[in-house]
Structure formats: C-alpha cells, structure tokens
Amino acid sequence: MGEVSEMRKFEKGKRKGTIMGKRIVLIAIMLVMTVLVVTGCADDQYVKAVKNSSLDMAPNIKIGQAFDKFFPDGEWKSLETKDHKHVVQFDGSCQLNNVDAHMIIQFLIHNDGSFETYAMTINGISQNPFDMSIYLMHILTGN
Fold it and tell me: Where are the alpha helices (DSSP H) in 42-62?
C-alpha cells in the first residue's frame, strides 16, 4: 500500500512538472512573439522622418497621414542603395480614376536629413517629375 501511495505522489509531481514546463514554454513563446511583433513593425528613423514630414506643395499635411488615408494597404520600408544612400519606399494600392492601381513611391534621404521624391511607378510604369508632382498633390490633398 505504501508503494502505491508513493507512486501516486510521484505521478502527481510528474504531472505538475509537465504542466509547469508547458507554462514556461508558452510564456517564452509569447515573449518572443511580442518582441518580434514590436520590433518587426517599428519604422526606422528614415521612414519616421518621411512619414512625419510634409512636402512644400502641402506644408500643413503630414505625408504619413495622407498616405494612410489614400492607400488602404500601404507599406513603408527603408532601403540602402549600393552606394550607401538611404531610400524610403512606399508601396500601396489605390483607385485612380476609378481604376485599381499599384503605386511605388521612393524618397531619397540626403545626408542632412532632408529628402526628395526620387521615383514613382504606377502599375510598373515610371512617372516623370511633372506627373509625380500631380499624383503627390492628389494623394496629399485628395484633389
């Protein structure tokens, strides 16, 4: 009888250890996922600079807010060119003249922190500087 009760104690302790081990693993997974989500979603300094700035054509409108309104699925990322220049790229889908369109807009970051619109494609077609200005004004102001 003593052996059976010792076995039961051993089995209970084993189950407690297994449950505790599962809890520790679950907590560790949750911590790792939290770190990945927080750091993976954070914008870097160049993306933040562009999103929090405005263009001369619409000085009271923040680029990030206007792009968020205009593009339902936009994504920002920072790139470094082979010659070590920083480029912020925006990639999103929108409606232009009631037609689905996909735009990629790049901003070149200068050493002093200023930036300029560097390139724009619509459905894979490069836009000239004049057309880029028209589209940017439309994105920023809705007109």
Answer: 45-51
